[in-house]
Amino acid sequence: xxxxxxxxxxxxTLKSRGEPxxxxxxxxxxxxxxxxxxxxxxxxxxxxxxxxxxGGGCARAAVLKAARESIADGRPRLVSIQPKDLLEEHGVVxxxxxxxxxxxxxxxxxxxxxxxxxxxxxxxxxxxIFGASPVAVALADIAPRFGYRVVVCAPSDDQKLFAAADQRxxxxxxxxxxxxxxxxxxxxxxxxxxxxxxxxxxxxAEHIGFVGSSRKMAxxxxxxxxxxxxxxxxxxxxGPAGLDLGAVTPEEIALSILAEILMIRRNNQRAATITTx
Length: 277
What we know:
By secondary structure, the chain is α/β, with parallel strands linked by helices. The chain is built from 7 helices and 13 strands. The radius of gyration is 23 Å and the shape is elongated.
């Protein structure tokens, strides 16, 4: 059995939009089950099936739970749905995970077994870099190796400093809302600090870091508050940006900033998994 064309169309559509989802595929069935091997379903972060079909309600709850968890932590899962007597034969209980397989109880009258592979399909997180300082250039250089989509916000004359960027924005006019996760670093370092910081504080982002001293950030805060920026927006700002690694060179500072973003990103994923569990 092959995936229905509509399911594959939905996969392509969501990927092009940069929207997160999970693809559930029935990889094995034993005895009588409603869905057969090869059946697929597209599952959204809220646990709804947008397209496709993977069987009745007896199996669906376990698969939807696995899909929500996969989208939250970015890891695939194999769910084995079996009748209670077979679970006992394997020495496991419903809800238990063993050797990378999550087991669930099939309470359908058919008493069949079904293994479902759940794979998260997540958009790349964006690293939004304001400025063209040496730290900004170093960040844009190393970020793609860690799976980030790089967005460079800098004056047109400075764009040539960046060898490659997924998106280039002249100046600091970044859209307030964006698809997927956005991690923002303001690294103007004396060239348009206030304008860049005002723009960064106005957008939706997982994290906003400022490359500069605490004294510089305090001065900018006072200036921006006087010009009408709401004080609560500064609670989102981390400065100086980066983990305290004793970094000195632009490359080392960029590494410390990326390490901090990685720590925040993974901690958020763990928290999301606990919430969906």
